[in-house]
Specification:
Helix content is about 70%, strand content about 0%. The chain is an all-alpha fold. The protein binds zinc ion (ZN). Zinc ion (ZN) binds next to loops.
Length: about 250
């Protein structure tokens, strides 16, 4: 188990590194394979040694090798979280169909966290790229009852559509469609839990970032965190809450 966890961690970090590039370049219509990444300050083209996920950032102490400009930890955190979450999914689900559903959702969240934070964009093609295989896998790893995935999808989609109408477009279209995919993964009960958690996290983020409700804040990252918490711990949370009420 430790061996597999290590292998999955390494793959997760490598995929996370690639998802950074996808989230960074795809919304701008740039190629995701070339050119190689470069320093935004001095345009030094990064060499293989500068591109090792997580480790390069640590060895270079967060600075460009050539000009020494500080590189933010954001992309390294995406790599780290993709890797940790990939391992967490394996430890929870083992090698099963469900673990692939989990990995697809984690991948989707990694990309939209980057694109939503940088450009406030959640692209349709990204949603489709991950949403379609998730839908297919859900038939092989069904929720109980099997149609719960559709109940969750339409519930999540509907709630966010309603919020969007009520807030006169304050909720982005990407968030609405994203919740359709999340609903497929979670089913209706955990979708409800994830909306609640995402709203709380989004509110805390808004307060910490001291932004009013007038401005749009990228809600994607809050949705990602809230949905992952619901996916991994939602049932425990509901049980705990029900016990509290009894
Ligand atoms: Zn540089």
């Amino acid at each position: 188990m430790i061996y597999y966890s290590c292998v999955i961690f390494l793959f997760g970090a490598a995929f996370g590194s690639f998802y950074n590039v996808v989230g960074l370049r795809l919304p701008k219509g740039k190629s995701i394979v070339s050119p190689p990444s470069q320093c935004e300050n001095c345009h030094y083209q990064l060499k293989p040694l500068d591109l090792i996920p997580i480790l390069s950032f640590i060895f270079l102490k967060g600075k460009c090798r050539k000009c020494g400009v500080k590189i933010g930890a954001f992309h390294t955190l995406i790599e780290l979280f993709t890797a940790l979450l990939a391992v967490a999914a394996y430890l929870k689900f083992g090698f099963s169909v469900e673990v692939f559903v989990a990995w697809l959702m984690i991948s989707l969240f990694a990309i939209i966290t980057v694109s939503d934070l940088l450009y406030q964009i959640i692209q349709d093609k990204i949603l489709l790229f991950f949403g379609i295989p998730i839908l297919i896998l859900r038939f092989f790893s069904p929720l109980d009852p099997w149609w719960d995935m559709f109940a969750g999808a339409f519930f999540g989609f509907g709630i966010f559509l309603l919020l969007s109408i009520l807030s006169h477009g304050g909720m982005g279209g990407g968030d609405i469609k994203l919740y359709f995919v999340i609903g497929l993964v979670l089913g209706i009960k955990l979708t409800f839990v994830s909306i609640f958690l995402s709203a709380v996290i989004g509110l805390i983020a808004a307060i910490i970032l001291k932004r009013g409700f007038g401005k749009t804040i990228p809600f994607g990252p809050s949705i990602a965190i809230g949905s992952l918490l619901a996916y991994f711990y939602g049932n425990n949370l509901v049980d705990w809450y029900m016990n509290l009420l009894m």
